[in-house]
From TrEMBL:
All copies of domain Formamidopyrimidine-DNA glycosylase catalytic, residue ranges: 2-76
Catalytic activity: Hydrolysis of DNA containing ring-opened 7-methylguanine residues, releasing 2,6-diamino-4-hydroxy-5-(N-methyl)formamidopyrimidine
Pfam families with a match to the protein in the record: Fapy_DNA_glyco, H2TH, zf-FPG_IleRS
Name the record gives this protein: Formamidopyrimidine-DNA glycosylase
Keywords per UniProt: DNA damage, DNA repair, DNA-binding, Glycosidase, Hydrolase, Lyase, Metal-binding, Multifunctional enzyme, Zinc, Zinc-finger
Biological process (GO), any one: base-excision repair
Sequence ranges assigned to domain FPG-type in this UniProt record: 242-276
Cofactor: Zn(2+)
Amino acid sequence: MPELPEVEALAAFLREHAVGRTVTRLDLAAVQAIKTFDPPLSSLAGLEVTGATRHGKFLDLDVSGLHLVVHLARAGWLHWREGLPTAPPKPGKGPLALRVHLAGGPGRDEEANGFDLTEQGTRKGLAVYVVRNPAEVPGIARLGPDALELDVEQLGALLAGRHTQLKGTLTDQTVLAGVGNAYSDEILHAARISPFKMADKLTDDELLRLHAALREVLTGALDRQLGQRAATMKGEKRAGLQVHARTGLPCPVCGDTVREVSFADTSLQYCATCQTGGKPLADRRMSKLLR
Protein backbone atom coordinates (compact mmCIF):
# COMPACT_ATOMS: atom_id res chain seq x y z
CA MET A 1 0.00 0.00 0.00
CA PRO A 2 1.42 3.42 -0.91
CA GLU A 3 2.04 5.39 2.27
CA LEU A 4 3.21 8.90 3.14
CA PRO A 5 6.68 8.75 1.48
CA GLU A 6 5.41 7.22 -1.79
CA VAL A 7 2.39 9.52 -2.07
CA GLU A 8 4.51 12.59 -1.30
CA ALA A 9 7.03 11.47 -3.93
CA LEU A 10 4.23 10.93 -6.47
CA ALA A 11 2.96 14.46 -5.76
CA ALA A 12 6.47 15.82 -6.33
CA PHE A 13 6.73 13.80 -9.56
CA LEU A 14 3.43 15.25 -10.79
CA ARG A 15 4.50 18.78 -9.86
CA GLU A 16 7.46 18.28 -12.18
CA HIS A 17 5.76 16.45 -15.03
CA ALA A 18 2.06 17.38 -14.98
CA VAL A 19 1.77 20.94 -13.65
CA GLY A 20 1.39 23.39 -16.52
CA ARG A 21 -0.18 20.81 -18.81
CA THR A 22 -3.82 20.78 -19.87
CA VAL A 23 -6.15 17.85 -19.25
CA THR A 24 -7.50 16.90 -22.66
CA ARG A 25 -9.40 13.71 -21.88
CA LEU A 26 -10.21 11.28 -19.08
CA ASP A 27 -11.02 7.62 -19.70
CA LEU A 28 -12.80 5.88 -16.85
CA ALA A 29 -12.22 2.14 -17.15
CA ALA A 30 -13.45 1.06 -13.67
CA VAL A 31 -16.79 2.66 -12.90
CA GLN A 32 -16.62 1.60 -9.25
CA ALA A 33 -13.51 3.76 -8.74
CA ILE A 34 -15.29 7.11 -9.13
CA LYS A 35 -16.96 8.16 -5.88
CA THR A 36 -18.42 11.57 -6.82
CA PHE A 37 -20.72 12.90 -9.53
CA ASP A 38 -20.79 16.67 -9.00
CA PRO A 39 -18.62 18.09 -10.50
CA PRO A 40 -18.50 15.34 -13.13
CA LEU A 41 -15.18 13.79 -14.12
CA SER A 42 -15.57 15.33 -17.58
CA SER A 43 -15.47 18.84 -16.05
CA LEU A 44 -11.68 18.54 -15.75
CA ALA A 45 -11.20 18.36 -19.52
CA GLY A 46 -9.76 21.58 -20.95
CA LEU A 47 -8.42 22.79 -17.59
CA GLU A 48 -4.77 23.26 -16.63
CA VAL A 49 -3.08 21.27 -13.89
CA THR A 50 -1.92 23.91 -11.42
CA GLY A 51 -0.63 21.90 -8.46
CA ALA A 52 -0.15 18.54 -6.77
CA THR A 53 -0.05 17.77 -3.07
CA ARG A 54 -0.84 15.14 -0.45
CA HIS A 55 -3.27 14.74 2.45
CA GLY A 56 -2.20 11.72 4.50
CA LYS A 57 -2.23 8.91 1.92
CA PHE A 58 -4.52 10.82 -0.48
CA LEU A 59 -2.99 12.28 -3.66
CA ASP A 60 -4.49 15.65 -4.69
CA LEU A 61 -4.12 17.07 -8.20
CA ASP A 62 -5.27 20.71 -8.40
CA VAL A 63 -6.84 21.29 -11.82
CA SER A 64 -7.55 25.04 -12.04
CA GLY A 65 -9.42 25.05 -8.74
CA LEU A 66 -11.07 21.66 -9.05
CA HIS A 67 -9.39 18.73 -7.32
CA LEU A 68 -8.80 15.24 -8.65
CA VAL A 69 -8.22 13.33 -5.41
CA VAL A 70 -7.04 9.72 -5.44
CA HIS A 71 -6.66 7.10 -2.75
CA LEU A 72 -4.54 4.27 -4.14
CA ALA A 73 -5.75 1.74 -1.53
CA ARG A 74 -3.81 -1.49 -1.06
CA ALA A 75 -2.79 -2.34 -4.63
CA GLY A 76 -3.19 0.87 -6.62
CA TRP A 77 -0.48 2.83 -8.40
CA LEU A 78 0.14 5.71 -10.77
CA HIS A 79 1.98 5.01 -14.04
CA TRP A 80 3.32 7.90 -16.14
CA ARG A 81 2.90 7.26 -19.88
CA GLU A 82 4.89 8.80 -22.71
CA GLY A 83 2.50 8.91 -25.64
CA LEU A 84 -0.90 7.52 -24.64
CA PRO A 85 -2.97 5.44 -27.07
CA THR A 86 -5.73 7.39 -28.77
CA ALA A 87 -8.28 4.57 -28.58
CA PRO A 88 -10.25 4.56 -25.31
CA PRO A 89 -9.68 1.53 -23.07
CA LYS A 90 -12.33 -1.15 -22.71
CA PRO A 91 -14.14 -0.74 -19.38
CA GLY A 92 -13.61 -3.51 -16.87
CA LYS A 93 -10.68 -5.09 -18.69
CA GLY A 94 -7.45 -5.48 -16.73
CA PRO A 95 -6.10 -3.35 -13.87
CA LEU A 96 -6.71 0.09 -15.44
CA ALA A 97 -9.08 2.29 -13.42
CA LEU A 98 -8.57 5.77 -14.93
CA ARG A 99 -6.46 7.24 -17.73
CA VAL A 100 -5.71 10.97 -17.76
CA HIS A 101 -4.52 12.54 -21.03
CA LEU A 102 -2.39 15.70 -20.80
CA ALA A 103 -1.30 18.09 -23.54
CA GLY A 104 2.18 19.64 -23.60
CA GLY A 105 2.55 22.81 -21.56
CA PRO A 106 4.82 25.87 -21.94
CA GLY A 107 8.36 24.86 -22.80
CA ARG A 108 7.30 21.25 -23.39
CA ASP A 109 6.69 19.32 -26.57
CA GLU A 110 3.11 18.90 -27.66
CA GLU A 111 3.11 15.11 -27.48
CA ALA A 112 0.13 13.88 -25.49
CA ASN A 113 1.45 12.27 -22.33
CA GLY A 114 -0.41 11.46 -19.15
CA PHE A 115 -0.87 8.82 -16.52
CA ASP A 116 -2.81 5.68 -15.69
CA LEU A 117 -4.26 4.81 -12.32
CA THR A 118 -4.23 1.04 -11.95
CA GLU A 119 -5.12 -1.52 -9.31
CA GLN A 120 -4.01 -5.13 -9.21
CA GLY A 121 -6.00 -8.03 -7.79
CA THR A 122 -9.70 -8.72 -7.41
CA ARG A 123 -10.23 -6.73 -4.22
CA LYS A 124 -10.85 -3.23 -5.53
CA GLY A 125 -10.43 -0.25 -3.24
CA LEU A 126 -8.87 2.49 -5.40
CA ALA A 127 -11.03 5.61 -5.11
CA VAL A 128 -11.24 8.73 -7.30
CA TYR A 129 -12.99 11.95 -6.30
CA VAL A 130 -13.61 15.20 -8.18
CA VAL A 131 -14.34 17.94 -5.64
CA ARG A 132 -14.16 21.71 -5.27
CA ASN A 133 -12.47 21.39 -1.87
CA PRO A 134 -10.39 18.39 -0.71
CA ALA A 135 -12.16 18.52 2.66
CA GLU A 136 -15.29 17.27 0.85
CA VAL A 137 -13.63 13.85 0.62
CA PRO A 138 -14.81 11.97 3.74
CA GLY A 139 -11.47 10.25 4.31
CA ILE A 140 -9.61 13.57 4.22
CA ALA A 141 -12.11 15.23 6.54
CA ARG A 142 -11.46 12.51 9.13
CA LEU A 143 -7.66 12.60 8.98
CA GLY A 144 -5.65 13.10 12.12
CA PRO A 145 -2.52 15.28 12.15
CA ASP A 146 0.17 14.47 9.60
CA ALA A 147 2.78 12.04 10.88
CA LEU A 148 5.67 14.37 10.02
CA GLU A 149 4.18 17.45 11.67
CA LEU A 150 4.13 16.32 15.30
CA ASP A 151 6.73 17.13 17.94
CA VAL A 152 7.30 14.68 20.78
CA GLU A 153 4.92 16.45 23.17
CA GLN A 154 2.12 16.45 20.58
CA LEU A 155 2.69 12.77 19.87
CA GLY A 156 2.52 12.00 23.59
CA ALA A 157 -0.74 13.92 23.93
CA LEU A 158 -2.14 12.10 20.91
CA LEU A 159 -1.39 8.66 22.39
CA ALA A 160 -2.41 9.45 25.97
CA GLY A 161 -5.70 7.81 26.86
CA ARG A 162 -5.70 5.50 23.83
CA HIS A 163 -5.85 2.00 25.27
CA THR A 164 -5.16 0.35 21.92
CA GLN A 165 -2.22 -1.63 20.61
CA LEU A 166 0.47 0.62 19.20
CA LYS A 167 0.54 -1.07 15.78
CA GLY A 168 -3.16 -0.38 15.21
CA THR A 169 -2.91 3.13 16.64
CA LEU A 170 -0.11 4.13 14.25
CA THR A 171 -2.11 2.92 11.23
CA ASP A 172 -5.40 4.54 12.27
CA GLN A 173 -5.65 7.49 9.87
CA THR A 174 -8.05 9.34 12.17
CA VAL A 175 -5.30 9.36 14.80
CA LEU A 176 -2.20 9.85 12.66
CA ALA A 177 -2.22 10.50 8.92
CA GLY A 178 0.15 8.85 6.48
CA VAL A 179 1.45 5.70 8.17
CA GLY A 180 0.32 2.29 6.93
CA ASN A 181 1.16 -1.35 7.51
CA ALA A 182 4.71 -1.35 6.16
CA TYR A 183 6.10 1.79 7.79
CA SER A 184 4.41 1.10 11.13
CA ASP A 185 6.39 -2.17 11.27
CA GLU A 186 9.56 -0.26 10.37
CA ILE A 187 8.93 2.52 12.91
CA LEU A 188 8.28 0.10 15.77
CA HIS A 189 11.37 -1.92 14.88
CA ALA A 190 13.54 1.22 14.80
CA ALA A 191 12.04 2.34 18.14
CA ARG A 192 12.58 -1.13 19.67
CA ILE A 193 8.97 -1.36 20.85
CA SER A 194 6.52 -4.25 20.66
CA PRO A 195 3.66 -3.79 18.17
CA PHE A 196 1.32 -5.05 20.93
CA LYS A 197 2.42 -2.41 23.45
CA MET A 198 -0.57 -0.31 24.53
CA ALA A 199 -0.38 3.25 23.24
CA ASP A 200 -1.18 4.79 26.63
CA LYS A 201 1.48 2.75 28.45
CA LEU A 202 4.62 4.15 26.83
CA THR A 203 7.38 5.27 29.14
CA ASP A 204 9.01 8.65 28.55
CA ASP A 205 12.01 6.93 26.98
CA GLU A 206 9.79 4.82 24.69
CA LEU A 207 7.90 7.92 23.59
CA LEU A 208 11.17 9.65 22.69
CA ARG A 209 12.32 6.59 20.75
CA LEU A 210 8.98 6.31 18.95
CA HIS A 211 9.01 9.96 17.89
CA ALA A 212 12.61 9.74 16.69
CA ALA A 213 11.86 6.53 14.74
CA LEU A 214 8.72 8.05 13.22
CA ARG A 215 10.69 10.93 11.78
CA GLU A 216 13.77 8.88 10.86
CA VAL A 217 11.89 6.14 9.01
CA LEU A 218 9.51 8.43 7.11
CA THR A 219 12.04 11.11 6.17
CA GLY A 220 14.60 8.47 5.20
CA ALA A 221 12.07 6.75 2.94
CA LEU A 222 11.00 10.08 1.48
CA ASP A 223 14.59 11.05 0.74
CA ARG A 224 15.04 7.77 -1.15
CA GLN A 225 11.80 8.24 -3.09
CA LEU A 226 12.11 11.89 -4.14
CA GLY A 227 13.54 12.24 -7.62
CA GLN A 228 12.56 8.70 -8.58
CA ARG A 229 10.30 8.08 -11.52
CA ALA A 230 6.94 6.65 -10.55
CA ALA A 231 7.94 3.30 -12.08
CA THR A 232 10.86 2.80 -9.66
CA MET A 233 9.33 3.95 -6.37
CA LYS A 234 7.90 0.57 -5.34
CA GLY A 235 11.26 -1.12 -5.74
CA GLU A 236 12.96 1.63 -3.77
CA LYS A 237 10.47 1.15 -0.94
CA ARG A 238 11.06 -2.61 -0.77
CA ALA A 239 14.84 -2.15 -0.82
CA GLY A 240 14.73 0.06 2.28
CA LEU A 241 12.64 -2.20 4.52
CA GLN A 242 14.26 -3.81 7.56
CA VAL A 243 11.50 -6.13 8.85
CA HIS A 244 8.29 -5.62 6.90
CA ALA A 245 7.68 -8.40 4.34
CA ARG A 246 10.94 -10.06 5.48
CA THR A 247 9.50 -12.97 7.49
CA GLY A 248 12.12 -15.69 7.99
CA LEU A 249 15.04 -13.49 7.01
CA PRO A 250 17.68 -12.25 9.49
CA CYS A 251 17.09 -8.92 11.22
CA PRO A 252 19.66 -6.45 9.79
CA VAL A 253 20.28 -5.09 13.31
CA CYS A 254 20.77 -8.21 15.46
CA GLY A 255 20.63 -11.19 13.12
CA ASP A 256 17.61 -12.83 14.78
CA THR A 257 14.92 -14.24 12.50
CA VAL A 258 12.17 -11.79 11.56
CA ARG A 259 8.82 -13.15 12.78
CA GLU A 260 5.24 -12.59 11.69
CA VAL A 261 1.82 -12.27 13.30
CA SER A 262 -1.01 -13.01 10.86
CA PHE A 263 -4.53 -11.63 11.02
CA ALA A 264 -7.55 -12.26 8.79
CA ASP A 265 -6.50 -9.96 5.96
CA THR A 266 -3.12 -8.57 6.93
CA SER A 267 0.03 -9.34 8.91
CA LEU A 268 2.80 -7.62 10.80
CA GLN A 269 6.51 -8.38 11.03
CA TYR A 270 8.86 -7.76 13.96
CA CYS A 271 12.14 -8.83 15.55
CA ALA A 272 11.74 -10.51 18.92
CA THR A 273 15.29 -9.69 20.03
CA CYS A 274 15.02 -5.99 19.14
CA GLN A 275 11.41 -5.41 20.19
CA THR A 276 10.05 -7.95 22.68
CA GLY A 277 12.95 -9.04 24.87
CA GLY A 278 13.41 -12.19 22.83
CA LYS A 279 9.87 -13.47 23.45
CA PRO A 280 7.79 -14.32 20.35
CA LEU A 281 4.35 -12.76 20.17
CA ALA A 282 1.32 -15.02 20.03
CA ASP A 283 0.02 -15.21 16.48
CA ARG A 284 -3.40 -13.83 17.29
CA ARG A 285 -4.81 -10.31 17.51
CA MET A 286 -5.66 -10.31 21.21
CA SER A 287 -2.27 -11.48 22.46
CA LYS A 288 -1.68 -10.67 26.12
CA LEU A 289 2.12 -10.80 25.78
CA LEU A 290 4.37 -7.82 26.35
CA ARG A 291 1.82 -5.12 26.83
